[in-house]
Amino acid sequence: MASLILSPAEQDYITQGVERGFRADGRGGLDRREVTLRTNMISQANGSARCRTGYLGAGTDVLVGIKAEVNSWTAGEPEDKGAIVCNVECSPSAAQEFEGRGAEELNVELTQLLDRILGGPQSGIDLGKLCIIPKQAYWVLHVDALVLDVKGSITDTLVWAARAALLAARLPRVVVESVADEDGNMQSEFDVVDDAEDQISLEGADNLPLAVTFSQIGKRYVVDASEQEEAVAQARVTVAVSPQMEICAIQKGAALRGFAPSLLTEILHAARTIAREEFARFKAVFDAANKATAADEPSTGSTFLGEF
Amino acid sequence: MEVDTETQVMDVTARIVTPGSAITSDPGFIRGHGTFGEGPTIYSSVAGVIERINKLVSVRSLKQRYGGEIGDIVVGRITEVAAKRWRVDVNSRQDGVLLLSSINLPGGIQRRKSESDELQMRTFFSEGDLVFAEVQSYFADGALSLHTRSIQYGKLRNGTFVAVFPQLVPRSRTHFHTLPCGVDVVLGVNGYIWISKHVSAAKVEANAEHIYSDKNEPISDEERESIARVANCVQLLNRLYVKITETSIIFAYEESLGHAPKDLLALDVAAELAHSVTGRLRQQS
Amino acid sequence: MAANIIDRRRINGPQRSVEPLYTHVDAAADPFASGRGDGRALDQVRPIFVKTGPLSAHRSESALSSAAAASGAAFYEQGKIRVSCAVYGPRQGRRSSARMGSFDCDFRYAPFACSWKRRSHVKGADEREISLMLEHAIAPAIRLEAYPKACIDAYVTVIESDGKAATIAAAINCISAALADAGIEMYDSVAACSMGLTGARWVADCAQPEEDAASCSMLIAYMPSADEVTYILQHGKTTPEQTDQAVQTCTNMCARVYAVICRYLQDSLE
């Protein structure tokens, strides 16, 4: 991301623009680019979503697939809870420097960010419901994200896609029964119902947070920074906000400088204002995506690409 | 693709071919760019459109990197400062080269390059700087040699950068345009475009001492809006795969005036604009 | 599982294992009603000990002659947490740009550092993440533009940890001291502090059991003189008011930690 080198004149143009509230592409400081969303276009996954932030078919593009697996419980793990495990990979198709081990650092950073937002009770998902038999078996939701294109502001797009994929995800139903073994002890056993019609959505997925990333440029900050703006930004912080306007996670990214505490407080307040609009927008875009999926033929290459 | 061996004469205009397809087996034709031959048959080596000039058959790929020609006006970004030269990214197969001896030194008059100039090369151009230059010649390895020996060439300031497909920028008499809306546009043949606030030629000449300054002039909100609008229009034209010329930019600009610059690239607005702009372009031609 | 194939080369454990039994201490509704286990106040950081220079005196004698010795080093203790850090550089960098130096950090737990189980000597994902976090937290403090083409490396080893967030904070403080020892130009020293949210109370510098009981943890790295937050990390859910409060308390505590480190650095110079 930091490979872009701009001339001092360009940097000054961007910085001045942000301070005046007039960005290089005409947006105001807190305006976001267009978001495109598609859901459940990967039939092999329990849930999937593809989200793009940008203009005219180009932009930051993230694909998230959810795979649910049954894990057997081992000592040391929580007894009556399932788990969510995240992994983010930046594809070399997004940028030349992601080739080989080039994306490693970014992968670690994004994976941990997603884990921080989704990997615990702060995600809003009821992990207790992911337990099948306490101390015996539980569901693991693997949230695997693939960053396909980068045009600034990966984190926000990533969380959008992950939220949409988890909301769209369906788990097979599990039947638990007690059986006596040869010694006469009662044992619990379970069966996964293999029926595409008989599936359940994730409990609490409505409470999943969205993330807003702020980049400080000059004396002001912007949201949804473009690639050029990210190259100029002095500091960056991601704030995840739940639909109840609670703060679920904060993480500062790589940067040249820090924030003044007063600016940080201002950002935390702005995060909630923006998140409120974001949730409304998410709902509209998600519903539209679902309608499109429902109307489509079974997923093929072309519906995968769809309007992308 | 079938080759018409009977007549051995082919209509080699306006046909789209894929790599490996035979174009003609008429020995009268000469192989041009994008083709290769085995025996008398000429095959295409790229996917693109067949072009024929008299006996010369070539295939022009729809998407290709910029291949420079002497006299081209380009916009480039400095990637490296080396001994007596800068390496410049010009969207080509190799980085271009700008020799210290091919630039105008501050002071205007032609003077000998001294050792002190060599030591302060970074004060002229440093990594990341954008230059407006002309292709002077080729090096033996095919790299482009650039020069900025004219008052209009040199460092670019006061604006923003957009990259488009190089084949959309046609070679023309002039590549530096001042649009009626008070915005200067530099259309690099290599697909790099610079959009900036208009600075009059007289002012440029008066500032000859400061040609390598990194400072922007004060830019008002109205000017920023015009620059943003033009930049978004250029991106829209690029997406439409329409030739980017002064005329097409002005058309797009005029059509876009009903919308705020930030909305121009939203899908619905863009679709509407695309319709009206292509309509006007067709009418004109 | 293919239980019928018996592996005769290794000693086979029983097919089923049983979890060791623990006696659970029932946590009361408010575990801090009668103060903390170690008698600290809620906003009190565990006692801090800092020392700059190499861990063993033996190495310091050869430091002048041997180029391999670190440019700066520090040892940092905060309660049970023990962290050591070595700083190399500024030296010729591999991937740094002509404009600015780069700062790289390598964070490792010793295999015996954690209470739960032995850590593998292979670098884990969490260690890689913490390495990145430390880079992000410290880099804003270093005048990297003063070191074009150079790189500065910090190697942090956690000898003993007690509370993850507190250990990261300790690592940041340790690097700060080591950088000062190495004579690297900085805008300000970075001091870091962590807190955990238990019930509705923020508890400073949580030890492992306290952290396990907390629903949210907050880590802040702060430069008091420059008044800049160089790193912030919140893990868990809070109300916005609680976050505001945490930012404020944490920066105050960072300033106190900073004072301790600065006092030591001044004393050591005299």
Provide a descriptive summary of the structure in words.
The complex is a heterotrimer of chains A (308), B (285) and C (270). Chain A is of the alpha+beta class and 308 residues long. Chain A has one domain: GHMP Kinase, N-terminal domain (Ribosomal Protein S5, domain 2, 2-Layer Sandwich), CATH 3.30.230. Chain A has 6 helices and 14 strands. In chain A, the strands form 4 sheets. In chain A, strands 1, 2, 3, 4, 5 and 6 form a 6-stranded mixed β-sheet that branches. A 4-stranded antiparallel β-sheet of chain A has the order 12-11-13-14, sandwiched between helices. In chain A, 47% of the residues are buried. In chain B, the strands form 4 sheets. Chain B has a 5-stranded mixed barrel with strand order 8-9-10-12-11. Chain B has 3 domains: 16-61, Beta Barrel (OB fold (Dihydrolipoamide Acetyltransferase, E2P)); 73-219, OB fold (Dihydrolipoamide Acetyltransferase, E2P) (Beta Barrel); 222-284. Chain C has 270 residues and is an alpha+beta fold. Chain C is built from 5 helices and 9 strands, in the order βαβββαβαββαββα. Chain C has helices spanning 57-62, 125-138, 164-182, 208-213, 240-269; strands at residues 48-52, 72-78, 81-92, 102-109, 150-160, 191-198, 201-204, 216-223, 228-238. The longest helix of chain C is centred in the C-terminal third of the chain and has 30 residues, at 240-269. Chain A binds chain C through residues 75-76, 105, 108-109, 111-112, 116, 120-122, 135, 235, 237, 242, 245-261, 264-265, 268-269, 272, and chain C through 17, 19-20, 116-117, 125, 128-129, 132, 135-137, 139-140, 144, 215-216, 218, 221-223, 226-240, 243-244, 247-248, 251.
Number of domains of chain A: 1
Order of helices and strands of chain C: EHEEEHEHEEHEEH
Distinct helical segment count of chain C? 5
Residue share in helix of chain A? 25-40%
Helix-strand string of chain A: HEEEEHEEHEEEEEEHEEHH
Q: Classify the helix fraction of chain C into a percent range.
A: 25-40%
Structural class, from helix and strand content of chain C?
alpha+beta
Oligomer: heterotrimer
Label the structural class of chain A: alpha+beta
- The count of domains of chain C is 1
Q: What is the arithmetic mean of pLDDT of chain A?
A: 86
N- to C-terminal separation of chain A?
23 Å
**Main pleated-sheet profile of chain A:** 6 strands, mixed
CATH class of chain A: Alpha Beta
